[in-house]
Amino acid sequence: xxxxxxxxxxxxHALSDPSxxxxxxxxxxxxxxxxxxxxxxxxxxPAVVQHIQVLETSGLVESEKVGRVRTCRLQxxxxxxxxxxxxxxxxxxxxxxxxxxxxxxxx
Amino acid sequence: xxxxxxxxxxxxHALSDPSxxxxxxxxxxxxxxxxxxxxxxxxxxPAVVQHIQVLETSGLVESEKVGRVRTCRLQxxxxxxxxxxxxxxxxxxxxxxxxxxxxxxxx
Lengths: 107, 107
Fold this sequence. Notes:
With 107 residues, the first copy, chain A, is an alpha+beta fold. Chain A contains 5 helices and 3 strands, in the order H-H-E-H-H-E-E-H.
Protein backbone atom coordinates (compact mmCIF):
# COMPACT_ATOMS: atom_id res chain seq x y z
CA UNK A 1 0.00 0.00 0.00
CA UNK A 2 2.79 2.38 0.96
CA UNK A 3 4.58 1.47 -2.27
CA UNK A 4 1.50 2.32 -4.38
CA UNK A 5 1.11 5.63 -2.50
CA UNK A 6 4.71 6.56 -3.34
CA UNK A 7 4.14 5.71 -7.01
CA UNK A 8 0.94 7.80 -7.10
CA UNK A 9 2.83 10.73 -5.48
CA UNK A 10 5.54 10.55 -8.15
CA UNK A 11 3.19 10.12 -11.14
CA UNK A 12 0.75 12.86 -10.05
CA HIS A 13 3.64 15.24 -9.27
CA ALA A 14 5.22 14.47 -12.67
CA LEU A 15 1.92 15.21 -14.45
CA SER A 16 1.26 18.45 -12.50
CA ASP A 17 3.64 20.43 -14.75
CA PRO A 18 2.38 21.64 -18.19
CA SER A 19 5.77 21.08 -19.92
CA UNK A 20 5.88 17.50 -18.68
CA UNK A 21 2.28 16.94 -19.84
CA UNK A 22 3.30 18.30 -23.29
CA UNK A 23 6.10 15.70 -23.38
CA UNK A 24 3.68 12.90 -22.37
CA UNK A 25 1.18 14.10 -25.03
CA UNK A 26 3.88 13.93 -27.71
CA UNK A 27 5.08 10.49 -26.55
CA UNK A 28 1.50 9.11 -26.52
CA UNK A 29 1.71 9.42 -30.35
CA UNK A 30 4.99 7.43 -30.48
CA UNK A 31 8.64 7.42 -29.33
CA UNK A 32 10.75 10.57 -29.86
CA UNK A 33 14.34 11.69 -29.38
CA UNK A 34 15.19 14.33 -26.76
CA UNK A 35 15.76 16.95 -29.49
CA UNK A 36 12.45 16.06 -31.21
CA UNK A 37 10.77 16.62 -27.83
CA UNK A 38 12.64 19.90 -27.21
CA UNK A 39 12.26 21.48 -30.70
CA UNK A 40 8.59 22.56 -30.50
CA UNK A 41 8.92 23.67 -26.86
CA UNK A 42 9.69 27.20 -25.73
CA UNK A 43 12.03 26.13 -22.91
CA UNK A 44 15.78 25.37 -22.96
CA UNK A 45 17.19 21.91 -23.79
CA PRO A 46 18.58 21.47 -20.21
CA ALA A 47 15.09 22.25 -18.84
CA VAL A 48 13.57 19.63 -21.16
CA VAL A 49 16.21 17.09 -20.02
CA GLN A 50 15.32 17.81 -16.38
CA HIS A 51 11.60 17.30 -17.11
CA ILE A 52 12.40 13.98 -18.84
CA GLN A 53 14.35 12.90 -15.74
CA VAL A 54 11.33 13.63 -13.50
CA LEU A 55 9.13 11.61 -15.92
CA GLU A 56 11.66 8.72 -15.84
CA THR A 57 11.77 8.74 -12.01
CA SER A 58 7.96 8.47 -11.96
CA GLY A 59 8.07 5.48 -14.36
CA LEU A 60 5.95 7.29 -16.99
CA VAL A 61 8.82 7.44 -19.50
CA GLU A 62 11.74 5.16 -20.36
CA SER A 63 14.68 6.20 -22.52
CA GLU A 64 17.48 4.42 -24.35
CA LYS A 65 20.65 5.92 -25.81
CA VAL A 66 21.95 4.56 -29.12
CA GLY A 67 25.06 6.37 -30.38
CA ARG A 68 24.43 10.04 -29.64
CA VAL A 69 20.63 9.87 -29.75
CA ARG A 70 18.51 9.26 -26.65
CA THR A 71 15.01 8.00 -27.56
CA CYS A 72 12.12 8.34 -25.08
CA ARG A 73 9.08 6.05 -24.87
CA LEU A 74 5.86 6.38 -22.85
CA GLN A 75 5.11 3.56 -20.38
CA UNK A 76 1.30 3.89 -20.46
CA UNK A 77 0.81 1.17 -17.78
CA UNK A 78 2.11 3.70 -15.22
CA UNK A 79 -1.04 5.80 -15.84
CA UNK A 80 -3.29 2.91 -14.68
CA UNK A 81 -2.97 3.35 -10.87
CA UNK A 82 -3.90 7.05 -11.30
CA UNK A 83 -6.93 6.17 -13.45
CA UNK A 84 -7.96 3.49 -10.92
CA UNK A 85 -7.60 5.86 -7.95
CA UNK A 86 -9.75 8.56 -9.59
CA UNK A 87 -12.32 5.97 -10.79
CA UNK A 88 -12.58 4.51 -7.26
CA UNK A 89 -13.28 7.96 -5.80
CA UNK A 90 -15.93 8.66 -8.43
CA UNK A 91 -17.70 5.32 -7.85
CA UNK A 92 -17.65 5.82 -4.05
CA UNK A 93 -19.33 9.19 -4.65
CA UNK A 94 -21.90 7.67 -7.05
CA UNK A 95 -22.73 4.85 -4.57
CA UNK A 96 -23.32 7.54 -1.96
CA UNK A 97 -25.70 9.41 -4.29
CA UNK A 98 -27.54 6.11 -5.07
CA UNK A 99 -28.03 5.39 -1.35
CA UNK A 100 -29.25 8.94 -0.81
CA UNK A 101 -31.74 8.47 -3.70
CA UNK A 102 -33.01 5.14 -2.22
CA UNK A 103 -33.43 6.81 1.17
CA UNK A 104 -35.46 9.67 -0.32
CA UNK A 105 -37.59 7.22 -2.40
CA UNK A 106 -38.40 5.21 0.75
CA UNK A 107 -39.74 8.20 2.67
CA UNK B 1 -6.74 26.12 -23.14
CA UNK B 2 -4.36 27.96 -20.80
CA UNK B 3 -7.15 28.04 -18.22
CA UNK B 4 -7.66 24.28 -18.39
CA UNK B 5 -3.90 23.76 -18.14
CA UNK B 6 -3.79 25.85 -14.96
CA UNK B 7 -6.69 23.84 -13.50
CA UNK B 8 -4.95 20.55 -14.35
CA UNK B 9 -1.74 21.83 -12.69
CA UNK B 10 -3.63 22.68 -9.49
CA UNK B 11 -5.69 19.46 -9.34
CA UNK B 12 -2.75 17.15 -10.11
CA HIS B 13 -0.53 18.99 -7.62
CA ALA B 14 -3.28 18.78 -4.96
CA LEU B 15 -3.64 15.01 -5.54
CA SER B 16 0.13 14.35 -5.48
CA ASP B 17 0.21 14.42 -1.65
CA PRO B 18 -0.87 11.26 0.27
CA SER B 19 -2.52 13.25 3.12
CA UNK B 20 -4.60 15.20 0.62
CA UNK B 21 -5.59 11.96 -1.15
CA UNK B 22 -6.67 10.56 2.26
CA UNK B 23 -8.92 13.63 2.72
CA UNK B 24 -10.41 13.19 -0.80
CA UNK B 25 -10.96 9.45 -0.10
CA UNK B 26 -12.85 10.29 3.09
CA UNK B 27 -14.92 13.02 1.38
CA UNK B 28 -15.83 10.70 -1.53
CA UNK B 29 -17.92 8.81 1.08
CA UNK B 30 -19.74 12.03 2.15
CA UNK B 31 -19.20 15.49 3.68
CA UNK B 32 -17.14 15.79 6.90
CA UNK B 33 -16.11 18.47 9.38
CA UNK B 34 -12.47 19.55 9.63
CA UNK B 35 -12.10 17.71 12.97
CA UNK B 36 -13.70 14.54 11.54
CA UNK B 37 -11.12 14.73 8.75
CA UNK B 38 -8.24 15.37 11.16
CA UNK B 39 -9.10 12.76 13.86
CA UNK B 40 -7.96 9.59 12.03
CA UNK B 41 -4.87 11.31 10.59
CA UNK B 42 -1.42 11.27 12.17
CA UNK B 43 -0.66 14.91 11.34
CA UNK B 44 -1.46 18.12 13.27
CA UNK B 45 -4.76 20.01 12.89
CA PRO B 46 -3.00 23.07 11.34
CA ALA B 47 -1.37 20.74 8.76
CA VAL B 48 -4.81 19.28 7.93
CA VAL B 49 -6.23 22.82 7.56
CA GLN B 50 -3.38 23.71 5.17
CA HIS B 51 -4.07 20.58 3.09
CA ILE B 52 -7.77 21.49 2.94
CA GLN B 53 -6.82 24.97 1.70
CA VAL B 54 -4.73 23.46 -1.15
CA LEU B 55 -7.72 21.22 -2.05
CA GLU B 56 -10.06 24.24 -2.01
CA THR B 57 -7.71 26.27 -4.26
CA SER B 58 -7.72 23.38 -6.77
CA GLY B 59 -11.54 23.28 -6.75
CA LEU B 60 -11.63 19.64 -5.52
CA VAL B 61 -13.19 20.60 -2.17
CA GLU B 62 -15.64 23.25 -1.01
CA SER B 63 -16.27 24.12 2.62
CA GLU B 64 -18.93 26.01 4.56
CA LYS B 65 -18.76 27.26 8.14
CA VAL B 66 -21.94 27.09 10.25
CA GLY B 67 -21.41 28.27 13.82
CA ARG B 68 -18.03 26.88 14.86
CA VAL B 69 -18.08 23.88 12.53
CA ARG B 70 -16.54 23.97 9.04
CA THR B 71 -17.95 21.21 6.81
CA CYS B 72 -16.05 20.07 3.69
CA ARG B 73 -17.59 18.56 0.55
CA LEU B 74 -15.95 16.93 -2.48
CA GLN B 75 -16.62 18.57 -5.86
CA UNK B 76 -16.24 15.41 -7.98
CA UNK B 77 -16.72 17.32 -11.28
CA UNK B 78 -13.21 18.76 -10.76
CA UNK B 79 -11.79 15.23 -11.25
CA UNK B 80 -13.26 15.04 -14.78
CA UNK B 81 -10.60 17.07 -16.68
CA UNK B 82 -7.90 14.85 -15.12
CA UNK B 83 -9.77 11.67 -16.10
CA UNK B 84 -10.28 13.06 -19.62
CA UNK B 85 -6.61 14.03 -20.01
CA UNK B 86 -5.39 10.57 -18.96
CA UNK B 87 -8.05 8.83 -21.10
CA UNK B 88 -7.04 10.91 -24.15
CA UNK B 89 -3.37 9.90 -23.73
CA UNK B 90 -4.32 6.25 -23.37
CA UNK B 91 -6.53 6.30 -26.50
CA UNK B 92 -3.82 8.08 -28.54
CA UNK B 93 -1.45 5.30 -27.50
CA UNK B 94 -3.99 2.57 -28.37
CA UNK B 95 -4.67 4.14 -31.81
CA UNK B 96 -0.92 4.08 -32.41
CA UNK B 97 -0.76 0.38 -31.52
CA UNK B 98 -3.76 -0.33 -33.84
CA UNK B 99 -2.05 1.43 -36.75
CA UNK B 100 1.15 -0.50 -36.04
CA UNK B 101 -0.89 -3.75 -36.06
CA UNK B 102 -2.54 -2.84 -39.41
CA UNK B 103 0.88 -2.03 -40.89
CA UNK B 104 2.31 -5.38 -39.77
CA UNK B 105 -0.81 -7.26 -41.07
CA UNK B 106 -0.45 -5.60 -44.50
CA UNK B 107 3.15 -6.68 -44.98
